[in-house]
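Annotated sample (chain length 323).
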Amino acid sequence: MRFFSIALTATALLAAAHAHAQDASFPDKSKTMTMIIPNSAGGGTDIAGRMLAEGLKQKLGLAVIVENLSGAGGIEGATRLQSAAPDGYTIALVPVPQVSMYYLDPERGGDFKRENTVVIAQHDYGALAIAVAKDSKFQKLQDVVDAAKASPGTITSASSTVLSTGHLSLLRLNKVAGIELNWTAMEQAGTALASLLGGHLDIITDTYSELYPHAKSGDIRLLAVFDTERQPSLPDVPTAQEQGFDVVMTTTRLVIAPKDTPEPVVKTIETAIQELINDPDYQAQAKERSVNIRFRASADAAKVWEDIDTNFGPIVKEFRENN
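Output written by the structure step:
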């Protein structure tokens, strides 16, 4: 019996040594890292993800490819990440609370769960903004609210999928302003913007980074940003809070890996992201692309995700009970 116990202990030690050796070999520069983005190309998360992929390629010394998997509102990408090998060569940049809706919203039907992932770090966040066409009669957020109160349900609005961050920001605006906007989901990238420019919508909400180029070119006007402070690239656009409406809505972008990814591997990627965000050249790239980089280490970023779920769970429940 004692011999059997010693043999088991030796086996366990050999397994641990083998696992440690595998961890120590990360990153294997002959391999390719895949970064999954559960959003279409061209959006705020895609812009941030491609910038991060370029940076990780330089920091880790291996090829990093971006794979946009936006099927089923992003569930396809999140599920692929969840089922990938926990070796560090498949990661994802996910926007929260978007991915939280995959399990907080009972009508999504996916099997993705936060508990099946490990958070590596927070890379950035994206403020939401509300926009109108350049020739819109609405000059400030109060104008929209006044019109919505005068004719309930007639002000047309759109964002992406049901209970997306854009939709959640409008639900919040409805609540704090005591209005009811006529909202439509437009899942195909660019559809809401095209409808706004074509005069078919009164307002849209989206990430600031996606709306910013069109606002800068003069095609649209931003009435407000849903953040606690103005954006440096368009300092004349006030926050909703400044205009008397307590609407703060941001997308927190987290780098995640499959559950059971070894801690040394997580730490290696986490350190690379932190070094990137501290790099002045990377900061300049982020500013140019309107990406608000903000580093949080693994444990702190995981806590942010947990807190977001706690805050949005009741909102999702109330919406589904009433719709």
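Annotation: The longest strand covers residues 117-133.
Annotation: The radius of gyration is 22 Å.
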